Amino acid sequence: MRLSAFRTHRSASFRLTPLTLFAGASGSGKSTVLQAYEALGALAGGAGLGEVFPDPLGCVPEWADADAQGRRGFRIGCTVDGPAGAVRLDLAVQAEPALRIVGERLTVDGRTLLSTALRDPERPAVQAEWLTAGSVPVTRAPLPDDRLGTALLPLRVAGKTEGQRLVLAAAEQVVVALRSVFACDPQPRGMRRPVMAGDGRLRRNCGNLAEVLHRTRDQCVRRYARLTAAARTGCAGEVAELAVEELADGKLRALVRRGPGRPATPVERLGEGELRFLALALVLLTGPGVLAMDRAAEIPDAYQSLTVLADGFDRGLDARQSRELVALAAETAKRGHVRLVGSVCDASFARGLDGVSVVDLVS
Hints:
Helix content is 29%, strand content 28%. The protein has helices at 30-44, 49-52, 149-156, 162-179, 188-191, 209-219, 221-234, 272-285, 319-334, and strands at 2-6, 9-13, 19-23, 72-82, 85-96, 100-108, 111-117, 125-131, 138-144, 181-183, 241-246, 252-257, 265-266, 306-310, 338-344, 357-360. Strands 2-1-4-5-6-7-8-9 form an eight-stranded antiparallel beta sheet, with helices on one face. It has a five-stranded parallel beta sheet with strand order 10-14-15-3-16.
């Protein structure tokens, strides 16, 4: 991830491992890194610039002065490793006087595959050119100034020449990697309420925890058993089983069964840390087919990769719960299907653990 000029970051670059935790005091820019990652993911999924950046001026660094035309903006980007090589995406966004993409560049091994530039401020488009490497070296055409050009290339490039095939491979590598993101922020208040059965996909706030527990118990016994095992460490008291009951009004309520002869505990009676622990453990043990996210439908399930973005990963958790969760994240990351990028105030619980990379930020 590169935050060349974004909010509090300037010329910042962070290499992300399968399990990366950003640590630092309030105001050090931990959340900003995750927000930039989520924004690139949304753009790669086809979202418009205004939807992704509802407060674009808030993304402009305070030290960024306007130019002679009164223009100010921000710059972010990333490099995605894969079969096409190390593909680099750089994006320049104008926040004022109007929100628009004013420059985008896609490169691999120093070779430019796509570049765009704002030629006419009066038109809602940028002039783009991408590699053809045929009888014509490049193809030129206008692209919308509120969409990520890289995400549009598969619809515009025929793939007939070697150059076009390289462009398609690089663009698809970046788009698939960025789209495979689930930003998770469990909200215990919503998780305490019984819910109606729906599509069984876990929402960002995990408010439909009971519904997804019900689906997981019925469809994946092994994952459900692993979740129960994690709950024994993350929840106070004895945990014999996680269960879901259907109430008279048809709603579902999650329960913690304590053992023979003991009454079950409804999840609404659990502490906030216990609820956040259960929600995050469930996220780490499931996948794109269970989470409410824009999954890459063209990728077979066996090859689906998922990056969980967890801002405030340790919020409300004690050190024991945090250690158990990060150990679970390391376990799933080793399998290659789930990556985690999180922010924490204090990473002491994770330092030295195998597979965990801690990035310390200073405010």
